[in-house]
Amino acid sequence: MNALSPVAAITVRTADLAAETERLDAFVAEHPDGTLFHRPQWSRVAERGCGARAHYLVAERAGSLIGCLPLSEIRSPLFGNALVSAGFGTGGGILGEGGAALASAAWRLAERLGCASAELRGGPVPQGWAESSGIYSRFDRPLPQSEDELLLSIPRRQRAEVRRALASSLETSAGSDRRHRDAHFQVYGESVRNLGTPVFPRALFEAALDAFGREADVVTVWRDGRPLACLLTFYHKGVCQPYWGGGTREARAWHANDLIYYETMRRAIGRGCVHADFGRSKVGTGPWSRKRIWHFQETPLVHAVRTADGSTPRAVNPLDPKYRLKVAAWQRMPLWLANRIGPVIARGLG
């Protein structure tokens, strides 16, 4: 009887994103659980847009790629240092095989870099890591095959709002040119200021639109040439992902916040998308309530967190009681000042 051949050991290393993007992107595309945030382009977007150094771990067996774990090094004097998968994303975590080896390598890397915590925003919870839940929910829905079916699939109240908007003088468009980029930062900056949170750097949005090309755009609702609502949207594996967006104070009066959801899905159907992923929202916030009103499918999210002995996990949730006064003060800040200070703070949130 022939002896059984030994199983090749799993090795973990840090990938060279400049040289291996095509190979890594193909692995993510082929894996059924591969997401936008596992793509190497996303790691480079976080690095270029917010200075979050990318550490993309890969697991291999006999030279074959079997798993990956994208990590961003987030450093902040206010919120502490952490390795996050994926930085500035709402997903990530371990993808594929070699999970235990990848998790161990990630924690060793965190210790070497002086990061007191590591966060995995998707995938399995590795042994020895704490499970965090109840903070975020994810919202999504399938897309019908036609615009008519889409309108009929919207809850009655929101359908009425969309029809009012369609009958008004509002215009819609989508693109990644300078006009749409400027409109997005203007609207998004005002929207998050009104929520009491700092805006991300404009460079992050620029980097995302540059990196993903035709797989990303800004859907915009206009009135008399002024943007009322915007959604920076990604298109990945038949899924549209409206990600960074919001509306101005004027948007509510013109039903633009409802129209932007409809318009984004309508255009996605034209692109051949079959599903819409509206990302995560913090439980109890305005965006969370709006997505529930639209009857999107809600899934509570589970994250994995590991912290150094004697340390506590990062506190970056604006609903934390200790931030209540800061949020209220931020909401009263002049928009020009919020947009100048906000990016300095927000790049440390990750």
Describe the structure.
- The chain has helices at residues 17-30, 40-50, 99-113, 147-153, 156-166, 178-195, 202-212, 256-270, 286-293, 324-331, 335-346; strands at residues 10-14, 53-61, 64-74, 82-85, 95-96, 117-120, 130-142, 171-175, 216-223, 226-236, 239-247, 275-282, 297-307.
- The protein is α+β, with helices and mostly antiparallel strands and 350 residues long.
- Strands 1, 2, 3, 4, 5, 6, 7, 8, 9, 10, 11, 12 and 13 form a 13-stranded mixed beta sheet that branches.
- The longest helix has 18 residues, at 178-195.
- The mean pLDDT is 92.
Percentage of residues in DSSP E strands: 25-35%
> Averaging pLDDT over every residue, what do you get?
92
What share of the residues lie within helices? Answer: 25-40%
- CATH topology name of the largest domain, in short, is Aminopeptidase
Secondary-structure element order, as H and E?
Answer: EHHEEEEHEEHHEHHEEEHEHEHH
**Biggest pleated sheet:** 13 strands, mixed
In short:
The chain has eleven helices and 13 strands. It is of the alpha+beta class.
Notable traits:
350 residues, alpha+beta, 2 domains, 13 strands
